[in-house]
Amino acid sequence: MQKNILITGAAKRIGAACARLLHEEGCNVFLHYRSSKADALNLCSELNLKRPDSAKMIQADLLDIKALESVAEAACGAWGGIDVLVNNASSFSPLPVGEVTEAHWHETLGSNLKAPFFLSQFLAPTLTQNKGCIVNIVDIHAQRGLKGYPVYSIAKAGLAAMTYALAKELGPEIRVNAVAPGAILWPDNALSEQDKAQILQRVLLQRTGEPLDIAKAVRFLIKDADYITGQIITVDGGRTLFC
């Protein structure tokens, strides 16, 4: 599979797992990061050691519309066009109703919704030409909301809706799908062991998943899903079977 792929939020966690797996498949990967420069440099160097000039990186604040356009232009110029956009970058922080500020609203909806939409729009011409695809990283809480994270849940619900809408808008040339992770990695703001245990009690497989589980679903949607569009694949160990 030889494709040119732009991944947002690619320096760590799920984004880095996607970059590594897709690179192993023979793809060139264009790595976006916001603040994790050291991680991005290490990942880019690691991939280029395996295959020269197969990875490039760019720093950008995805809340800035001009930066979004610059990312799209740089990605297109790297290897002569983009075949796949993986919208992975995401802000995730707890703030219950009553404490939400306008800045928090803009930050969360900007990274989870605004950036994926405008990157999709900016890249639509090259994706159309290459009969490419878009993969959005959503969340199982787009369906029912995560207590304490109302704005994040709203933003991911919007990204799920955008997946369906863009599949209609951009087809038949561009396929648009999404992956909805469940408990994959614990958030950086640490949960108590009791909180973790309560979450795992509602996971049928009784364990967290791995970033590679999400990366494999992304790879499937890119590589083996030529007749799939407008769909969201849930990768959650059975979590959503519980109310």
Could you characterize what this model shows?
- With about 240 residues, the chain is of the alpha/beta class.
- It contains eight helices and seven strands.
- It has a seven-stranded parallel beta sheet, sandwiched between helices.
- β4, α4 and β5 (about 135) form a beta-alpha-beta unit.
- α4 runs parallel beside α6 (about 150-170).
Kindly list the characteristics that best describe this protein.
7 strands, 243 residues, 48% helix
List the SSEs and their pairings.
Elements: E1 4-7, H1 13-24, E2 28-33, H2 37-50, E3 55-59, H3 65-79, E4 84-87, H4 102-129, E5 133-137, H5 141-144, H6 150-170, E6 175-181, H7 193-201, H8 211-223, E7 232-235
Parallel strand pairs: 1-2, 1-4, 2-3, 4-5, 5-6, 6-7
Helix pairs in contact: 1-8, 3-4, 4-6
Q: Helical residue percent?
A: 40-55%
First and last CA, distance: 39 Å
Q: Kindly estimate the percentage of residues that lie in beta strands according to DSSP.
A: 5-15%
**Total strand segments:** 7
Quick gist of this model?
48% of the residues lie in helices and 14% in strands.
